[in-house]
Design brief:
Chain lengths: 112, 112
């Protein structure tokens, strides 16, 4: 079984620029998550999708972050404009229920 | 709200030493509890889990017991190896909502 695919692996941008991350979940997994992991902290949920609908986006900074999951398969997370404090690893995960999570390797974003 | 408190690191042990990483939690209801591991340069991997009180999760020589009376889920291993060097995260989720709440992580280094 293929894992959760994420790209790019690394990204360096200047503050106020925009950036987008892509995630392709495991085939058949209805639920998709984006987590933000700041250095030295545990991952924090940004947004949770069930198929192509949003279940929880309460921690998503909506003034600058957006995410979509068209057709209920792959997903894109965008930041516009980026701030220095957005430097983090962005993890995508998918599941088919009851803690059966699979995480991708993440995208490491550095904002300078 | 939910929260997870982990033993602060970093933790450095000699090979074959006994390992304990403490984890306590605050949650409504009866959460499921998890330990995830993150090896250098890799994504998060589920190490073990327990879904109800007194359950013991185990994998690769690691164990953790769900203690409802002390709201704890401490990770233990009887004899650590160099290959166990990684960052370990304790996490929980509530039944019916798979959102994971993570602790801050404990970096473990095993020296030969």
């Amino acid at each position: 079984e293929a894992g959760v695919a994420q790209s790019p692996r690394y990204k360096i941008i200047e503050k106020r620029q925009s950036v987008a991350f892509w995630c392709n979940p495991i085939s058949g997994h209805a639920t998709l998550y984006w987590y933000q992991q700041i250095l030295g902290q545990g991952p924090k949920l940004l947004i949770q999708f069930q198929n192509n609908g949003v279940v929880d986006d309460s921690q998503l900074p909506k003034d600058r972050f957006s995410a979509e999951r068209l057709k209920g398969v792959d997903s894109t997370l965008k930041i516009q404009p980026a701030k220095l404090e957005d430097s983090a690893v962005y993890l995508c995960a998918s599941s088919q229920g009851q803690g059966g999570y699979t995480f991708g390797s993440g995208t490491r974003l550095t904002v300078v | 709200g939910n929260s997870v408190t982990q033993m602060e690191g970093p933790v450095t042990l000699s090979e074959e030493a006994f390992l304990t990483i403490n984890c306590t939690y605050t949650a409504t209801g009866y959460p499921s509890l998890f330990w995830y591991v993150q090896y250098p340069g890799e994504g998060l991997q589920l190490l073990l889990k327990a879904t109800k009180a007194d359950d013991k999760g185990s994998n690769k020589g690691f164990e953790a017991t769900y203690r409802k009376e002390t709201t704890s889920f401490h990770l233990e291993k009887g004899s650590v190896q160099v290959s166990d060097s990684a960052v370990y995260f304790c996490a929980l989720s509530n039944f019916g909502n798979e959102k994971l709440t993570f602790g801050t992580g404990t970096r473990l280094t095993i020296i030969p």
